[in-house]
Amino acid sequence: MTPSTNASAGDPLLAAVRRGVTVYDLGRRLSVGMPQSPNHPAYWHSLPRRHGDMVRSDGGSAANDMITMGTHVGTHIDALAHVSHLGRLHGGADAVEAGQGGRYVELGAHTIAPMVRRGVLLDVPRAIGAGEGCGAGYEITPDDLAATEAAQGTPIGAGDVALVRSGWGRFFDHPDRTVYMGLESGVPGVGEAGATWLAGRRVHAAGADTIAFECLRPGAAHSVLPAHRVLLVEHGVYIIEAMALDELAAAGVHEFTFVLAPLPLFGATGSPVRPLAMIGHG
User: Facing residues of 32 across strands?
Assistant: First the structure.
């Protein structure tokens, strides 16, 4: 059935788009050599065909690409199959059995529905007076999250997407990519208690501007990831990592329409994403 013009005109979402929308890109540019977790295959891009390699009879030419990368590289979302605890995935499925055949049929990235939800930016450094950002290895506590929520007047509700800005994202493009990775220095982020606080708000997903979402202690790297256990395994909350949140924070935007569509990678443990924050005009 072809929708009528009148029906389209009456759509409130379409009407909002027609009035104008400001879009903030929350995804990082994918580039060779960008900082990433050492646990995942790096991003690589090549041109197997360049202009001039083959020229058609009419003078036309085309170039094409090939990329390789892990699904947890760059801005990405963790599927519920990504983490297990004591041999169990979210819902109690046996983690080993679930991966038989080389893919996670029940909890893979293809099961993550596209998101169009209320988003809330929790700009923690601004709320707690931490200057440009939280210090290396700083654990963002429930008190920090609650103080930020209160200072902004943006209470988090069930089904929302909560984005936690630590300020560490300013190091993503640092000439020394190991700075953002923070393997020796540590990285600020939500700890187990903060993750429990977010889960208690019944968020649909939680994101951050850091490499692993959660607090990484100096020298500990990814040795333990309790926030992943709490969110992914215990509560079925998706995690979005390596987000670009500084532009949104600089604009003072704390509440918005959040849009995210994962690639439907069948059986995968995660997917690259390009999340958007959208603000309507009037």
Answer: none
| Strand order across the 161-165 sheet | 21-25, 276-280, 255-260, 115-123, 161-165, 205-208, 238-241, 76-78, 270-272
User: CA distances (Å), 137 to each of 133, 190, 218, 240, in order?
Assistant: 11, 10, 6, 19
CA-nearest of 81, 65, 72 to 35 is 72
pLDDT of 221: 79
The shares of helix, strand and coil residues in the chain, as percent rounded to the nearest 5, are: 25, 25, 50
Residue 241 φ then ψ, to 5°: -120, 165
Q: pTM above 0.90?
A: yes
Ranges assigned E (strand) in 113-233: 115-123, 139-140, 161-165, 189-190, 205-208
Element (H, E) at 144: helix 142-152
**Three-class SS of residue 92?**
helix
DSSP string for residues in 187-216: B-EE-HHHHHHHHHTT-SEEEESSSSSB-B
Alpha helices in 34-139 (DSSP H): 95-98, 124-128
Among candidate residues 239, 232, 237, 229, the one with its CA nearest the CA of residue 203: 237
CA-nearest of 61, 57, 29 to 45 is: 29
- Which residues are CB-neighbours of 182 under 8 A, at least 6 positions away? 136, 137, 168, 211, 216
Whole-number CA gyration radius for the chain:
20
In this prediction, residue 4 carries a pLDDT of 47
pLDDT digits (tens, 9 = 90+) for 81-136: 999 999 999 999 999 999 999 999 999 999 999 999 999 999 999 999 999 999 99
Q: How far apart are CA 255 and CA 152, in angstroms?
A: 9
